[in-house]
Amino acid sequence: TLETEAGFGGRFTVNHVGQQFTDQMNTIEPNFDGRTGIMPAFTTIDATLIYDVKKWNSRFNITVKNLTDERFIASRRPEGIRMGLPRFITAGYEFRF
Q1: pTM score, two decimals?
Q2: How far is residue 88's CA from residue 63's CA, in Å, rounded to a whole number?
Q3: What is the rounded radius of gyration, in angstroms, for the C-alpha atoms of the chain?
């Protein structure tokens, strides 16, 4: 996290998830319905930009989840392969009383 006296700030988050087995038999090859098989490792990067307006007691922000738009398997169970969140951008406004 980085914040300046002028009210600007930013944050980078790196999330790494290692390779995982999805069943007790440690099956590597996926089966036809996608419920078993190894889940490869993946890394995602999130970034947030902040602007703090002290005279208004307010803060504006914009966040980008999965900045690099990494495609990854988030889960295989219970219904088969479920892909992770694609690049996702949100903006917000916070007012403090």
Answers
A1: 0.81
A2: 8
A3: 19
**In the numeric block, which tokens belong to residue 91?**
């903006």
Tell whether omega for the bond before 78 is within 30 degrees of 0, i.e. cis.
Answer: yes
13 within 8 A of 45, measured Cβ to Cβ: yes
Which helix (H) or strand (E) segment is 2 a member of? strand 2-3
Q: What is the pLDDT of residues 28-46, one digit of tens each?
A: 999 889 899 999 999 999 9
| CA dist., res. 62 & res. 7, Å (int) | 14
Q: Residue 75 gets which letter from DSSP?
A: E
d(CA 8, CA 51): 5
